[in-house]
């Protein structure tokens, strides 16, 4: 590779107390929590809108409750900012109240389902109310360190290059970008995803002009319906596509090798609101060329999936693709090595810890790997140490860039878990600023007290 020597130049500095990379579910919660502590917070996001995967088509929120097949026996285990956020969605008319889902394949007794466009507005309101300085369409391009302490985050956007000076940094980038630029130890688990769930990527999309009633009546061996909600307060039907069970009828779909392509959520009659296009290419999404190729190949793929459904399925003859996610959905790429790395045994055996910052109780792979189901009481603890990357004094990580163990990762990477971690990182960062201490010097008793004061659930 050839190199070009860039001339030295003065870079303007943006002053902050706390810098957050990535305005996905973890990053938004981290920024709001930190700003509410009184800190000056800068939050950057590469897209033109906050919300990350949640606003990108992955807007079924699992799980505010413990794993339980009977909703009447379920208990809520997540409060704090995630619960506040969803209550705001309901109040704004962009989300239903919790919907009971008895005998769910995931042992998920209730689901929360905000409108993917409306939830973006709710998060924007909460960020503005908290006083977070948000810079959208902004890329993190490097960091400046002094030993194990990060001094600046280097960013680029329409203003050119800037350096953000902060006391504490929070990496919610998904791909562990701050950790990478800081030279911290990272590992990956994307290459083994195929062993369990088919691949680390997907691109959700939707269709209009669908006659589901006719489809289920004329092709019950291929598509079936579960009515989740259908009353004066709302409409939510879920459809399961089993095209591989009738390859003769579904020649075009089967030719695309869709593997685990199954679930369709409908929030309006005649509309396939969200089609979970699982699973996309096996790639390391932390590299620019691989990610770019996958983004383009998936655009072609969803176009062909929509055309195949139109050809193969009765009731889809007049369907048309009416949206596709703005970016590829990534389940896993780069994982940061932290003081504590959760294992599947700890998750499935409902392990509790002395330094918990939240509880969680959802396991995405329970249908495919029954042994991964979380044992009674149906939730486990999230330890503070899982947010602390080795080799850094003033950095937190939160979101899908933690937890290497594949099955454990298929729990912690989910949206509500990311929000729980994000809030804890933001609260802890606020304590670091106020007390002028490093991340490992935060008194757990003080952190716990502050989390409880913010309605985080630590005991059930």
Q: What's the domain count? A: 2
User: Distance N terminus to C terminus?
Assistant: 57 Å
> Which blocks of ≥5 consecutive residues have pLDDT under 50?
none
What kind of sheet is the major sheet?
6 strands, antiparallel
Write down the CATH topology of the largest domain: FAD/NAD(P)-binding domain
CATH homologous superfamily classification of the largest domain: FAD/NAD(P)-binding domain
Give the name of the CATH architecture of the largest domain. 3-Layer(bba) Sandwich
- Residue share in helices? 25-40%
Rg over alpha carbons: 22 Å
Average predicted local confidence, pLDDT = 93
Number of strands: 23
CATH class term of the largest domain: Alpha Beta
> Which strand order spans the largest sheet, edge to edge or round the barrel?
14-15-16-17-13-18
Main attributes of the structure:
460 residues; alpha+beta; FAD/NAD(P)-binding domain; 2 domains; six-stranded antiparallel β-sheet; 23 strands; 26% helix
In short:
With 460 residues, the protein is α+β, with helices and mostly antiparallel strands. It has 11 helices and 23 strands. Helix 1 runs parallel beside helix 3.
Task: Describe, in plain words, how this protein is organized in 3D.
- Helix content is 26%, strand content 22%.
- The strands form seven sheets. The protein has a six-stranded antiparallel sheet with strand order 14-15-16-17-13-18, with helices on one face. A five-stranded parallel sheet has the order 6-3-2-10-23.
- The chain has two domains: 13-189 and 333-453, FAD/NAD(P)-binding domain, CATH 3.50.50; 198-329, no CATH class.
- The protein contains eleven helices and 23 strands.
- The termini are far apart.
- The protein is of the alpha+beta class and 460 residues long.
């Amino acid at each position: 590779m050839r190199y070009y020597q860039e001339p030295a130049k003065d870079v303007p500095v943006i002053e902050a107390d706390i810098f957050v990379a990535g305005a996905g579910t973890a990053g938004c919660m981290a920024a709001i929590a930190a700003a509410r502590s009184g800190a000056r917070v800068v939050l950057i996001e590469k897209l033109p809108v906050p919300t990350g995967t949640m606003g990108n088509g992955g807007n079924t929120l699992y799980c505010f409750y413990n794993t339980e097949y009977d909703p009447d026996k379920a208990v809520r285990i997540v409060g704090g900012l995630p619960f506040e956020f969803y209550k705001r969605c309901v109040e704004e008319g962009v989300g239903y109240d919790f919907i009971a889902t008895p005998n769910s394949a995931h042992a998920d007794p209730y689901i929360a389902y905000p409108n993917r466009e409306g939830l973006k507005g709710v998060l924007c309101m909460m960020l503005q109310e908290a006083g977070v300085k948000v810079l959208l369409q902004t890329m993190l391009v490097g960091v400046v360190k002094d030993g194990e302490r990060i001094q600046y985050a280097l960013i680029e956007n329409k203003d050119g290059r800037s350096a953000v000076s902060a006391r504490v940094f929070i990496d919610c980038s998904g791909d562990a970008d701050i950790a990478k630029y800081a030279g911290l130890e990272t590992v990956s688990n994307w290459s083994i995803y195929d062993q369990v769930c088919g691949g680390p990527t997907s691109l959700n999309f939707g269709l209009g002009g669908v006659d589901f009633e006719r489809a289920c009546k004329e092709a019950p061996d291929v598509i079936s319906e579960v009515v989740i909600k259908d009353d004066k307060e709302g409409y939510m039907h879920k459809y399961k596509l089993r095209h591989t069970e009738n390859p003769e009828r579904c020649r075009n779909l089967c030719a695309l090798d869709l593997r685990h392509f199954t679930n369709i959520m409908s929030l309006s009659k005649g509309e396939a609101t969200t089609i979970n296009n699982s699973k996309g290419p096996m790639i390391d999404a932390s590299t620019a060329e691989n990610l770019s190729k996958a983004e383009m190949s998936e655009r072609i793929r969803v176009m062909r999936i929509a055309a195949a459904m139109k050809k193969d399925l009765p009731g889809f003859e007049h369907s048309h693709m009416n949206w596709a996610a703005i970016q590829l959905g990534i389940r896993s790429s780069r994982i940061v090595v932290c003081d504590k790395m959760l294992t599947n045994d700890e998750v499935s055996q409902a392990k509790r810890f002395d330094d918990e910052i939240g509880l969680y109780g959802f396991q995405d792979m329970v249908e495919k790997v029954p042994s991964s189901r979380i044992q009674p009481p149906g939730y486990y603890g999230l330890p503070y140490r899982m947010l602390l990357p080795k080799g850094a004094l003033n950095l937190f990580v939160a979101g899908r860039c933690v937890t290497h163990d594949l099955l454990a990762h298929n729990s912690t990477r989910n949206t509500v878990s990311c929000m729980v971690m994000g809030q804890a990182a933001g609260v802890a960062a606020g304590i670091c600023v106020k007390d002028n201490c490093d991340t490992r010097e935060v008194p757990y008793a003080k952190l716990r007290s502050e989390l409880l004061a913010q309605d985080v659930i630590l005991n059930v």
